[in-house]
Each structure stands twice: as C-alpha cells, then as structure tokens.
Amino acid sequence: MTQAADPIMNAAPPSPETGRSEVAASMSIALPLALTNLGNIAINTTDVVMVGWLGAEALAAGMLGFTLIFLFLLGGIGLTSSVPALTAQAHGSGDARAVRRPIRQGLWASVLYSAPAIAVLMHGEWILLMLGQDPTASRLAGEYLAYAAWSLPFILGVMVLRALLATLDRAAVIVWITGSGIILNAAINYGLIFGNWGLPRLEIVGAGVATTATSAVGFTIIAIYVVTHPAIRGYHVFRRLWIADFERLKAIVRLGAPIALTALLEEGLFAASTLMVGWLGPLTLAGHTIALQCTAVAFMIPLGISQAGTVRVGIAAGRRDSRAIGRAGWTAMTLGLAVMLIAALAYWVIPEPLARQFLDASDPDAGAVLAIAVSLLGVAAFFQLFDGIQVVGLGILRGLNDTRVPLAYAAFGYWVCGAPLAYVLGFVFGYGAVGIWIGFIVGLGAVAALSLARFSARDRNGLVEKFVAVHA
C-alpha cells in the first residue's frame, strides 16, 4: 500500500474551532490515559498486597525491589516521553512517514535504555547491601529483580505505542488492555507466589515473573492491534524496524533526557519528604503515607490530562496553528485545575472517611495516626492543586518540544525552594509534618507559576517560532 493510496495517511486532523470542541477532543484522550494510569497503580498495589501475604520480611524485600526498579522505569518513561509530542506534531502536519518515525525510534530507545538498566538490576542485591539494607531483604529483593527487570523494555514499549494510539484518538483500547492486565497479573501472582493451580511455589520470585509476563502480554496485544486495526495499520510502524534512524533517535534523547531528569528530581523530592517525616517517628510517618497515597491516586487524573495536553498542543504545533496551540494548552490547564479542585474539596470535606480506609480500627495507634492523616489531608488539598497545575504546565510545554528550561524550573522549585523550606519549617520552626508539606507546596507552586508564565509568554519567548524554524 502506498501513502497516496490511503487518504487517511496524509490528512491532517481537523482543528477544533471552539473551546467546547477542544474540551471534547482533549477528554477523549485524557480520560483513557487517566484510567490507564490508575490501572497501573492497581497492578502495583496488587503486587504489594499479594507479596505482603508472605509476611513482613517478604513485604520489606518487595518494597526494596519495587523502589529500585521504579527508579529505572521512571528514567525510561521520561526518556521516551518526547515520543508523544513528536508523534502528535507529525500527525498535525499530515505526514504519515513522520508519524511512524518517532514510534519506531521510541522502540529503539526503549531497548537501548533497558539493556544496561537490566544489567544493573541483575546486581540488585549488591546495590541494596551497599545502601545499608538488611541482608535477607536484599537477597530476596535481588531474586525478585532478576525476573522483574526483564519487564522494562515491554513497559516502555507499551508507553511508546500508547503515544501513537493517543495521537490517533484510539487510546480507549489501552484501558481494556490494562484492565485485563490487572486480572492477569493477579492470577499469575496467585499461581506462582503461592503455588496454586499446580504451579511451583516461587514466592517473591513469582511476583517478578508475573510482572514480566503481564508486561510482555500487554505489549504483544497492543502491537497486534497496531498492525491489524484498519485506521492504524497503514502507518506501517513495524516495517523495517531494524533500520536505525539516528536523526530521530537523537531528537528523542535530546528532548527526553530533560524530561527524565525532571521526573527523577520530582520523585527525589517525594522521597526526601518521606525521609524527613520519618525523623518525626513511625506514627507521623504512617499518617504522612496515608495523605501521600491519596494524592498519588488523585494525581493520575491530571497526569492523564497533562499527557493529553502534550498531544493536543503537539498536533496544533504540527499544523503551525498558534491559536489552536493556546486553545489546547489552556483547555488542558482548565481541566486539570477543575479535577484538582474536586480532589481538594474531598480532602477538606471528608478527610476522616478517606483516611480510615487505610487503617485497622482495632490497632491501638489508629486514632493517633488518623488525627495526623486528617491534619495533613487539609494541607494536601493545596498540595494537590499546585501539583496538578505544574504537571499540566510541564505537559503542554512538551507539546512545543520545550523541555530544557522546564528542567531548570523543576530543579529550582523542587530543590532550591521546596526541600530547604520544608526542612526549615518542619524542624527549625517546629511545625513538624505540616511544615514539611508546606515547604513542598511552595516548591510545586514555584514550578507551576514558572511553567504557566512560560506558556503564557510562548510568543514573546519565541517558542512557536523556534518550533517552526526547526521543523521547517
């Protein structure tokens, strides 16, 4: 099939002419992506819960393994996060060949990143021992990582193909695949962790096998969908996949590396908050964990909106439509803010019922932990607002291939403003966990304000002109 023979392949998508139509276009992408993000949390939660059934020692080892592999996964996701913008821009220009180029090279980047990452994770036990972790927990975590590490290329491959589906407004299928993945992962865990259904009892190793198997099946199903669906197969994503396109691969790395560093800076900020709160004692840490988990679940929705904003701004940029760029960006920001206002309202109105879901009423410490969690959820309402604004702000800037300056914003906001202020308020002024949270709110607020200011001044800063000059 030639490109000329298939009109869908060379036609740029129509531009929404009103704010209402832009909301509809954005939500058709954002909702499936948000549900997929929530589904991924459900898969991770299933792993934690089922490994926890083996006992405290296995749970501790599992958390060490999950944490280590997540850091590498976060870097890989950040690296390939430039693929949605590049794909959307190509789609906006109506160039089918340009659409498949970032997808192909995104798959290359996934493999090239995963190979050394897997090699490092194979030495997970040694790494954890060097970090001063318990020898038994380190050994068990190493056994888990020896199998779970192989999931990296499949997970990253799914993220790359998801960019194509989101760009072509076919992201809904990912929701069904992710939902099936939750069930499959739980079933394999149940069989291999505990030796059910005639399968060997592998305990924590079984969780690692389940992670890789579920990821491989998910990637395979999405790949089959891409090569068989009438609206997608004409892009020939996998044709001559073995041929490197170093120009496009270089663009993915150049734009993706700052995104990866931004993600690692943010994850480091949350890790620092947990360490600081941990100095205040186990009960305070437990309350902090409840509040942080609530915000993490709610965050998946603005994250999906941010990812949709990247695509919508990218499509408009590909058409060289400055008005559509602004409409797409501000629509994403409005949607993100609306969702976060609902979450904030829940933290203010029903904090106690939310926190109780994480506690055993028979635990003698439950009352103290509940009081701490409720107080932190009141602060978390502001945290959620600024976190949602900053993630959407960073996402819409990525649609214009603007990733280096936002990295500087993140470094400044998270680590120059947020972390030091959290320490000062929490320990110097004695505000404890609430002070730590306020410090991080200021950091997130700084990133949010800077990102919004940069997008607002995109014409004055020449962001659109630079994009056009590079892609002329």
Task: Write a concise keyword list for the protein shown above.
mainly alpha, disordered N terminus
Structural summary, described in words:
The protein has 472 residues and is mainly α. It has two domains: 26-244, no CATH class; 258-472, no CATH class. Helices cover 80% and strands 0% of the residues. It has helices spanning 19-52, 56-79, 82-93, 96-121, 124-130, 135-148, 152-167, 172-194, 204-228, 246-278, 282-318, 322-349, 351-356, 366-398, 404-428, 432-456, 463-470. Helix 8 (172-194) runs antiparallel to helix 9. The longest helix has 37 residues, at 282-318. Mean pLDDT is 88; it is low at 1-8. The chain crosses the membrane at residues 58-86, 107-132, 144-165, 172-192, 204-228, 285-305, 325-348, 368-386, 407-428, 434-453. It is a multi-pass membrane protein. This is Multidrug-efflux transporter.
Number of helical elements:
17
Largest sheet: none
User: How much strand?
Assistant: under 5%
- What's the number of domains? 2
Helical content class: over 70%
Identify low-pLDDT runs: 1-8
Mean pLDDT: 88
Helix/strand class? mainly alpha
Gyration radius from CA atoms, angstroms? 22 Å
Number of strands: 0
End-to-end separation in angstroms reads 27 Å
Categorize the overall geometry: globular
Write the H/E string, N to C. HHHHHHHHHHHHHHHHH
Protein name: Multidrug-efflux transporter
GO cellular component, one term: plasma membrane
Transmembrane segments: 58-86, 107-132, 144-165, 172-192, 204-228, 285-305, 325-348, 368-386, 407-428, 434-453
GO molecular function, one term: antiporter activity
